[in-house]
Model the fold of this input.
Amino acid sequence: MNKDAYKKIYEYHQVTKHHFNRYAASAGSMDWENQPNPFRFYEKAPIVEMPLLESDLNIDHRGLYFCENNTQDFSLISLGGFLELSLGLSAWKSFQGSQWCLRMNPSSGNLHPTEAHLIVPQLKDMEAGVYHYNPFLHALEQRAELPGALSSDIEQFFNSKGFLISLTSIYWRQSWKYGERAFRYCNHDVGYALAAIRFSANLFGWKVNYLNSLSDLSLDSILGFNKLQWSKLDKEEPDLLCWVFPKDATNVNMGLSDSIIENLKNINFQGKPNKLSKSDYCWEIIYESSDCIKKPKVAAQDYIYEKAFDNSLFSSDIKAGQLIRKRRSAQAYISEKSFIALDVFLAILEKTLPYSDRASFDLGLNEICINLAIFVHRVRELEEGLYFFIRNKKHFQDLKASFKSDFLWEQVRDNLPLYRLKKSKVTQQAADISCMQDIAGDSAFSLGMIALFDPIIRDEPYKYKNLFWESGAIGQVLYLEAESHGLRGTGIGCYFDDVMHELLGLKSSKYQSLYHFTIGSPLEDERLTTLPPYFHLKDIRK
Ligand SMILES: Cc1cc2nc3c(=O)[nH]c(=O)nc-3n(C[C@H](O)[C@H](O)[C@H](O)COP(=O)(O)O)c2cc1C
Done:
């Protein structure tokens, strides 16, 4: 255990809690002049334009979750489709002269701190290299060429064809609006992007392994970040690296060899990262906390979960690609229309369970740490009240002992770990806890993600980030499942942490609520005009 890192990250978490009478420190108002550019460009790096999918793949709802689809060869076309359906743009919106774009992956405040870099071995129609994915251009910016020998070493090492994809965070994009709490939001967003990658990979018949042994320092140099002159707030902080490979490949390595790391470190990089704002304001606590919990090299871990047992819960007629494209956050809910059937509610929850043969928790992220405390408002055949959904059975007894002693713990259905804790109307309570946001009470249900916290960050402080990644990955499942039932979800990063803990009777920081979410029937904002996601490319791509 690294005591200093634990202390630092524990403090960060405490300081960035919202309280009824005091929000975590932020600028307080929006400095629009200095809003960071949501797009990173590696200026002067050669650009590889990626094709957009001509039509959506004919894959149903179930195909999002199970990797049963035909494996596509790695090529410019398949990589373009994969990136489009994971991190690409989903629409432009405009209102009273201003225009902004949305993406397949959500982000707190639509600020998008997450960037992606790919290390691609030689393909038949693409040069081997290290690339940055630019979603605005739907293009790869070639930051480095990959020597032929290294390209084949990588494939040999993984025992399969494939490519590496890394996610990084630019904290300033979130701290500009959210101040000190932004480090949490950046990591939620990484989790969302990771799940978006995992789902998209399934559609191409590919799997994804998170290389969980790699150190942050190695990743920083693999991506050539140590060779760049960054201004502090423009810097991308490395988060993770994954290997994407065909679903039938076997004995795929979970780590990355020292020799490949060394060889990647020695390649030459090109392209200068763009400056994101005119002037910056540094929220030091974020950089100090991030520096303190840099991930060391660790032994590669294989996290094995059970196999999925119920395959009948994939009822949506909407194709998988459409579900991804349709995903949006609700701004408000029509409470009278937000009643849902019990089966719908259970089917949505079931998708958040981790299985080793089902996306998006099959990529080796961590031991499952998060269970769900649910405010049920409008589920037919289910009484209003507080419920609990167990994602990790090992936590069950301890949670029971840690929560209020008068909770009922009545199981709702034999084959699902959903328990009623308390019968009562909880709409106002849910909204109040979510920083007074009505979306948490006007919906069918809302929830708090209760993570096993203190023991995890005490042993391995770097896993603070993993906990938020897990919450984002759950969020992406909830967003897509809401769409599959004609509903809409919204992630809720703004909530009063300790009020939620008090409600459950938690007296220590062993368990902490890390994120909230709500699902219901949305009230559409008719004032906004919607434009296609890549209409702007017509002028850019001649
Ligand atoms: C980590 C995270 C936290 C969020 N917190 C809130 C919130 O507290 N309240 C809210 O109304 N929306 C919240 N959202 C929704 C975002 O504002 C929304 O994702 C963003 O505007 C992009 O829109 P889209 O999801 O429709 O693409 C959150 C989203 C994420 C990913």
